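Is this the right way to post structure tokens for a design question? Let me know if I should format differently. Anyway, here goes:
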């Protein structure tokens, strides 16, 4: 995976936000972040038992460490507070954003856009398309993708859950 250039900037009149590659020192903060952000993201979209299953499968140290070690997870910090995370990976010739979460209460500040910009830069450097996925019914993810020029290109059935929606940049 190509290296990412750290991004930093002020989002409005707020404190400086820094987006960088995650490292092992971020592991505990990432686990805690997931346990706050994931239930909020899926409230009303999937059953709470399925949210618990997602947390148990995707937000443990064992699940997070490989993506961190491979340089596929980016974190956004404001001061010492983790405010966003984005994990990418190659799939069928495209760089896919598998996770993009912003801490509840910090939505609408440009943190997700900053994370997406770093993912887009990574895809451009690798000369591949950028795609995003989200669970059907997640209105916020759908609106975010469309606001950033992505259109739906497919759906994938998930056992016991709503479909996975695939988005790609318009014209890509």
């Amino acid at each position: 995976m190509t290296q990412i250039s750290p991004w930093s900037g002020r989002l409005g009149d707020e404190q400086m936000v820094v987006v960088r590659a995650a490292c092992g020192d971020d592991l505990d903060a990432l686990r805690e972040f997931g346990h706050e952000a994931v239930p909020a993201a899926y409230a009303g979209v999937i059953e709470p038992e399925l949210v618990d299953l997602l947390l148990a499968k995707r937000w443990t140290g064992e699940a997070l460490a490989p993506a961190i070690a491979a340089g596929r997870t980016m974190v956004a910090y404001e001061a010492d507070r983790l405010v966003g995370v984005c994990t990418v990976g190659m799939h069928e010739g495209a760089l896919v954003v598998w996770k993009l979460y912003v801490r509840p209460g910090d939505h609408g500040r440009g943190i997700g856009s900053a994370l997406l910009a770093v993912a887009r830069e990574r895809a451009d450097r690798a000369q591949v398309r950028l795609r995003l996925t989200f669970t059907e019914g997640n209105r916020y993810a759908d609106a975010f993708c469309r606001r950033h020029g992505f259109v739906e290109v497919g759906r994938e059935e998930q056992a016991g859950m709503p479909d996975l929606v695939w988005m790609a940049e318009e014209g890509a």
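Format looks fine. Someone answered above. Worth noting: Strands lie at 7-10, 16-21, 73-78, 81-91, 94-102, 129-135, 150-158, 161-169. Residues 1-6 have pLDDT under 50 and may be disordered.
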